[in-house]
Design goal:
This protein is of the alpha+beta class. The chain folds into two domains: 252 residues, P-loop containing nucleotide triphosphate hydrolases (Rossmann fold), CATH 3.40.50.300; 105 residues, no CATH class. It is 22% helix and 32% strand. Strands 6-7-8-3-9-10 form a six-stranded mixed β-sheet, with helices on both faces. Helix 4 packs across helix 5. The chain is elongated. The protein starts with a strand and ends in a 42-residue tail after the last strand. Bound molecules: adenosine-5'-triphosphate. The site of adenosine-5'-triphosphate has 12 residues, from strand 2 and helix 1. This is ABC-type quaternary amine transporter.
Length: 382
């Protein structure tokens, strides 16, 4: 459906997109994730035809879009701030695209009613958009973006301004809606929880480049670099030398999975792999703090200060969480130890899945769950 070939965009000295290759298969939802300034919005603008490329090409359904103006590309774009027309009512907003494309009034009215049903606002056509809640405006904006039946729907921080509870609900609804309609979606967000809940594939950007692309589960289970791991909220990262079944680290010798690359590099230990024991066992640590993870008060992150090495985070249930100031021992679960690629963010070839162009329904769905501030969290992943 969509292909970017080595797309580069520069603003003066600043390279916003640096030879980006990307594919989005028909019916897939791809979420582009990344910190502020990593190039996410520029990527959408390039596909929409709102931003010229300095080199490379954008292809939609195999056709080079060079020189094709935005309104002829057949893509829909929904911005973070909705950009609804305040002087028009809900129906006027949703019907705007079809009407300007020459659809008759009766047919456009039917379409508007259909779309309002679809987004959960049946009968809201005559309401003033200024009198709607943020979540309702969001739905109207979505219905308006869907109305011209774009071959590709692009969403820029679609749930960015909504409160957390609403985002959690809407992200599940959106996913269901896109599945039912078979819409092809390219969305950008800086919230990894949202991306993991919505996407068949996620693309993590770092300074204008793709740091990793894969299914949510692949990226979550095997972050390709320290940058990706830290962006996903993992902090237990340390240099390591792997020899056989152990890694020599600042925390001592860690057991590692059999398939981990040998030699020098960095490892990540996911918090679930930091197991709390009696103080006599394993690496001795002091409990510095305990924090709740997102909305799930039963899961706690325990921040540990080890006798040796950088701080560690352990995940455990509230029931099992030791008190602040307590002394504990830590042992490591090798299944939660992951080798990371280049610390500067270049993908580790061994762990970066090749871009996939599969059809719908093949990506794992990571259900909303507890998270550290995100709308939904991939921590619910298996
Ligand atoms: N019109 C412009 N003129 C100059 N620099 C720009 C322009 N648009 C974007 N940039 C720069 O290009 C880089 C990428 O910007 P972009 O808006 O794509 O990032 P982003 O990942 O969407 O960020 P955010 O999450 O903050 O929206 C940034 O360094 C930004 O300052």
């Amino acid at each position: 459906m969509l292909r970017l070939d080595a797309v580069t965009v520069s603003f003066g000295e600043r390279t916003a997109l640096d030879a980006v290759d990307l594919e989005v298969a028909e019916h897939d939802t791809v979420c582009v994730l990344g910190p502020s300034g990593s190039g996410k919005s520029t990527l959408l603008r390039v596909v929409a035809g709102l931003q010229e490329v300095h080199s490379g090409r954008v292809l939609l359904s195999g056709q080079d879009q060079t020189g094709v103006p935005p309104h002829r590309r057949g893509v829909g774009l929904m911005f973070q701030d909705h950009q609804l027309f305040p002087q028009r009512d809900v129906a006027g907003n949703v019907g705007f695209g079809p009407r300007t494309h020459g659809m008759g009034r009766a047919e456009a009215d039917r379409r508007v009613a259909e779309l309002l049903d679809l987004v959960g606002l049946p009968g809201a056509g005559r309401r003033a958009v200024t009198a709607l809640s943020g979540g309702e405006q969001q739905r109207v904006a979505l219905a308006r973006a869907l109305a011209p039946e774009p071959r590709l729907l692009m969403l820029d921080e679609p749930l960015g301004q909504l409160d957390r509870g609403l985002r959690e609900r809407l992200v599940v609804e959106l996913r269901g809606l896109f599945r039912r309609l078979g819409t092809t979606v390219l969305a950008v967000t800086h919230d990894h929880g949202e991306a993991f809940a919505l996407a068949d594939r996620v693309v993590v950007m770092e300074r204008g480049r793709i740091a990793q692309a894969g299914t949510p589960l692949e990226v979550w289970q095997r972050p390709a670099s320290a940058f990706v791991a830290r962006f996903l909220g993992f902090d237990n990262i340390t240099p390591a030398t792997v020899d056989g079944g152990t890694a020599d680290t600042a925390w001592g010798k860690l057991p590692v999975p059999d398939d981990i690359p040998q030699g020098g590099g960095q490892v990540l230990v996911r918090p679930g792999g930091v197991l709390l024991r009696e103080p006599r066992e394993g690496l001795r640590c002091t409990v510095e703090a305990r924090t709740f993870r997102g909305g799930d008060a039963s899961t706690v992150t325990v921040l540990l200060r080890p006798d040796a090495g950088p701080p560690l985070e352990a995940a455990c249930t509230l029931r099992d969480a030791p008190q602040e100031g307590a002394e504990v021992g830590v042992v490591f679960d090798p299944r939660e130890v992951v080798a990371l690629g280049d610390p500067h963010g270049a993908p580790d070839a061994a762990h970066t899945p090749a871009p996939r162009t599969a059809g719908p329904g093949q990506g794992p769905l990571v259900r909303p769950g507890p998270g550290d501030g995100g709308a939904v969290s991939p921590e619910a992943a298996p």
